[in-house]
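Honest question from a wet-lab person: if I give you the sequences of every part of a complex, can you actually get the arrangement of the whole thing, not just the pieces? Trying it with mine:
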Amino acid sequence: EPEVTQTPSHQVTQMGQEVILRCVPISNHLYFYWYRQILGQKVEFLVSFYNNEISEKSEIFDDQFSVERPDGSNFTLKIRSTKLEDSAMYFCASSERYGGNYEQYFGPGTRLTVT
Amino acid sequence: KNQVEQSPQSLIILEGKNCTLQCNYTVSPFSNLRWYKQDTGRGPVSLTIMTFSENTKSNGRYTATLDADTKQSSLHITASQLSDSASYICVVSRNNYGQNFVFGPGTRLSVLP
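Yes, you can. This is the full assembly:
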């Protein structure tokens, strides 16, 4: 069964450094998402992406974040200058269509630790 | 403020028993409501999706209900199994396109033998 994959599974970085989290969505999916989950807290929506553009973003997704689809398979989240509070699990998701009734399939997540 | 609340925070049941998890939301506008199962350290997996016009939906042993008037939903698990031990998350999308999601804090379910 097709699945969303994410790399790396765990990333440790120093405060102020840039990190890129990578995701490979399901191949026939057109819509992509990033979420984060701080340890012990609820999942938070960051951004949705379609046709090489951001469709929607939350208040969390400020100027230090960016997303990109550099090729036909990868979808990346870049954090320009990491802060301690960026430490969280980051989940990528994809869906076949745009709209509320379509399932989103989540990847296993990347645990980001900022020291 | 757009919020999703869930109760109980955690629940312990014996294998084979049924249980019901609750979700209340104040999200507006409402597009749809989803229930997800999240195993520890894994991404959420969709169980059900309900729009405004649907008041019940089943997926195997999982049955979700929605009362859009009172802004409440429940997830009923029948004949629980050890593998049902996970967090169950209620998620409400807040626009017509359904892409901006508000997550609840989840209910941590433990099924004991």
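Two things worth pointing out. Residues 27 and 79 of chain A are 25 Å apart (CA to CA). The mean pLDDT of chain A is 92.
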